[in-house]
Model the fold of this input.
Amino acid sequence: MQTDRNAEASGSASEARALAPHDADAAAAYAHALMLQGRTDDAEHAAREALAIDPENDRAHHVLGLVGLNRGDSGEALAGFREALRLDPTDESARERLVLALKARHPVYAQVLRFFLWQARLPKQAQWALLIAPFAIGRVIRTVHNDAIFIPLALVFIGLIVLTWAADPVMTLALLATREGRLVVSRDSRIAAALFGGFIAVAVAAAIVGAVYDPHLFIVTFGFVVFALGAGNVDGLPERRRKVVYAAAVALVLVAVVQTAIVVAGGGYHVQVVPAVVLILGAAASLWYVRLAS
Done:
């Protein structure tokens, strides 16, 4: 399982189960291996067999939580992960998945989560195809010359992309307003949500000022919204790669300050174009970096 050889893992765990039929850990390991293969019903059956041997086997409860997540049953997922954490408070994986289960109580996030779980089980080639798909779909949309069709298609397409990126940090911010959420949300997720919320807030402020004062500030709005979508998901990256995004945040803020100062000073297009291009390309590059590094 550690090396993602899930078929081999389930075979070995099945053999362990046969050799030690009264060992709850062997049954729980078998359940976990089945879950990683996407065999949800079999995994649930094996996990319940483990609990019949030892009702306090934390790994079996963890697997039942995974079963609930994959079925879109947030109640089952919450029960499994809460019990797993009660039995082993050091289980960070159960803590992270408890956060997912809490978010999955919202029906929209539940559908987004199911999509991500389905995508994670796909072969690497299929995952790359999904990554490239938005460009192909966008190309098709741009070929539609009828505005009555183009505008709704474009709005739906952009909305779906934004939803998949924004769902996690938005739900993290919502969780932080609850007592249980504050207890289980990790430090890295708090930072990611704070980055998302902060950049979105500044983007909205820039849009308002741009509408009243100078439309050139919409560049800051666009760049910050794009960057916020990436930064809001930075908690899924290894620590070294998270630091790259944090450095990018500082750099983009400095560029935005330069861009704003130029606009306020009345600088012409030739002066504004360099920071504007750096802001947009930097935000887009950060979004891609988070996607590819996760």
